[in-house]
Design a protein that fits this description.
239 residues; mainly alpha; two-stranded parallel ribbon; 46% helix
């Protein structure tokens, strides 16, 4: 039964049931084949219900936060194109700021299908390496924001990507590393938002910390970051 099921969206549970039924009818209709089909069907409804729990969570957040707080939904490449469209259309009414990385990074055609199908903006880019890998987004500038990752090309590529994006009317919301990205965002013409996580704050002598909802570049030479000696001690190369 796997070849009949794989590759389909869980949003098509009843159609999948019918496909299995027709594919196995000549030896099935009763007995173990229907037992197997039933197990698959139950699992698919469970998966679909969990996606509906995602929508319920966003609805609850919007209700609790009101309309003045932005909500971003990060799928982290977890859906198929059809799933993203089904769930994304349900999320449209909750005024989320964006739907992030709905499908695997190489599926550019899928990104474009999703972007065309939803009112909510679709964003991505954190899993792509250098401006060469991001070229399809520049060639089809459907998305308002890109999220390049500094570790996939360094600061030179961040500047290059920002320049190319600016020419296409796209903004930059870098992936992680706010300590360095705050410098980039202050230097480019098309910044969007910074992603702040505190997981690296303990590494620095003087961490870059937000004040309210604002991050400010340090007024120190270079990028202004110095590792705490104790953070590096365990990684020193011993002669």
């Amino acid at each position: 039964m796997a070849p009949v099921v794989l590759g389909h969206s869980i949003g098509s549970v009843e159609a999948i049931w019918q496909d299995i039924w027709q594919a196995t009818y000549w030896f099935g209709r009763m007995g173990v084949s229907v037992f197997t089909q039933s197990a698959i069907d139950i699992a698919l409804w469970d998966a679909l219900g969990k996606h509906a729990t995602d929508v319920a969570n966003v609805a609850a957040m919007r209700d609790a936060l009101g309309e003045d707080i932005a909500i971003m939904v990060d799928v982290n490449m977890g859906w198929t194109v059809d799933e993203a469209i089904v769930v994304g259309r349900r999320l449209d009414k909750y005024n989320i700021r964006w739907l992030e990385e709905p499908v695997v990074v190489a599926h550019f055609a899928g990104y474009f299908r999703i972007g065309d199908a939803l009112r909510t903006r679709v964003v991505g880019g954190e899993g792509h390496f250098t401006h060469y890998d991001l070229a399809p987004f520049f060639d089809n500038p459907k998305f308002p924001t890109l999220q390049p990752d500094m570790m996939r090309g360094g600061l030179t590529q961040m500047r290059r990507i920002a320049t190319l994006a600016h020419a296409k009317g796209m903004r930059i919301a870098p992936h992680l590393f706010h300590e360095l990205m705050v410098q980039v965002m202050a230097a480019i013409p098309n910044p969007d938002v910074l992603e702040y996580l505190d997981c690296l704050d303990d590494l620095w002598v003087e961490p870059v910390l937000p004040v309210g909802n604002t991050l400010t570049p340090p007024d120190r030479p270079g990028h202004g970051l110095i590792f705490k000696p104790e953070a590096l001690r365990g990684f020193a190369i011993k002669p």
